[in-house]
Specification:
globular; 6-stranded mixed β-sheet; Diaminopimelate Epimerase, Chain A, domain 1; inorganic pyrophosphatase (n-terminal core); about 20% strand; about 35% helix; 12 helices; 6-stranded parallel β-sheet; alpha/beta
């Protein structure tokens, strides 16, 4: 996997970069951004890390996570005056994925924008684009960028990239886990990634509140036509003193059942407004369903938002699966 020459030349030529990842960040977006930032600093560049939302608790072991700015702390005036005139979107390929606030997006004035991403739902944003849906994780792509830049892999970069790849391959269990993934993972371990510790932080560090939330969510389970639905409400968060970040990986569990082909988590944002996480097995393409509702993602992992009451939203999603030939 070779990064485009245009992208490498851009990274070598320019001096200052804002590196942004998507809202509701995950290990792939965060780890990729941190590792790229660290590598660019190693060759004398200046970088600012940007994410609208806070780093989830399970990702706070990642070295460098505290370097992220949000829109309140970022000195946007410096960006406006082209002190930092270059934007790199990591793990997303649409400027609207870094904020839902029009005012925040409009304040971002950049001379050159680049995209490094692996999502199947591709948008036309970016002067320089490297979008590779077949890549298991954006972290895998950043690994190859670092190699091509001639930067030595440090322990910090290795931890972040291993976490990135681990998250998007389900700890190397998903179908996107290729021989290249294992090869890169071996190099990252050699460079200092403590793989057992990373696994524990990502997948085995639940609080009691999070576990109680999980039990409440499982009690909402419904199944129809090979599709499992689970739901988390604002009231559940209040009762368990938890937050949206605590639902990470919840959507994966119903898919454990043999006859379930698709698992969907409905998370209540506000009354009659839900964020959906969709997961599937084999060739069932949930990205195409998510696109019907303004979202997107990968073939087997996607997301979207729907403004409707729960029963209507569930009915519309089920209808989409049966009306989009490429979905089921």
């Amino acid at each position: 996997m070779l990064p485009p020459t245009e992208l490498l030349n851009f990274l070598k030529k320019e001096e200052k970069f804002v590196i942004a990842t998507h809202m509701s960040p995950d290990g792939d977006g965060l780890g990729s951004a941190i590792a790229l930032s660290t590598a660019l600093q190693k060759i004398g560049k200046e970088t600012i890390l940007l994410c609208r939302d806070s780093v989830p608790q399970q990702c706070k072991f990642m070295p460098g996570h505290e370097r992220f700015h949000n829109f309140d702390t970022l000195q946007l005036s410096a960006v406006s005056h082209q002190s930092f005139k270059n934007l790199i979107l990591v793990d997303c390929n649409d400027i609207d994925r870094i904020s839902t606030e029009v005012s925040q997006i409009s304040n971002l004035k950049f001379q050159i924008s680049a995209v490094i991403d692996h999502h199947e739902s591709e948008k036309p944003f970016g002067d320089i684009r490297w979008v590779t849906p077949e890549a298991a994780a954006t972290g895998l792509m950043v690994f190859h960028i670092i190699k091509e830049l001639g930067v030595e892999m440090t322990e910090e970069m290795a931890i972040n990239l291993y976490a990135a790849i681990s998250v998007d391959t389900g700890n190397f269990r998903y179908e996107n886990t290729t021989h290249e993934v294992f090869s890169v993972a071996a190099e990252l371990k050699k460079a200092g990634a403590r793989t057992h510790a990373i696994y524990r932080e990502l997948f085995e560090s639940w609080s009691e509140g999070r576990f109680n939330l999980f039990m409440k969510v499982l009690n909402t389970l419904e199944m129809k036509d090979g599709i499992a639905f689970v739901r988390v409400t604002k009231k559940m968060f209040e009762e368990t003193a938890t937050f949206p970040d605590d639902t990470e990986h919840f959507v994966d569990f119903p898919r454990i059942m043999k006859d379930i082909k698709v698992s969907i988590l409905f998370r209540e944002i506000e009354n009659d407004y839900y964020k959906l996480s969709l997961r599937s097995k084999d060739d069932i393409n949930v990205a195409h369903v998510a696109e019907e509702f303004g979202g997107g993602g990968h073939k087997n992992a996607a997301g979207c938002r729907i403004r409707a009451d729960f029963e209507t939203a569930k009915r519309e999603v089920l209808k989409a699966f049966h009306t989009i030939p490429r979905a089921l």
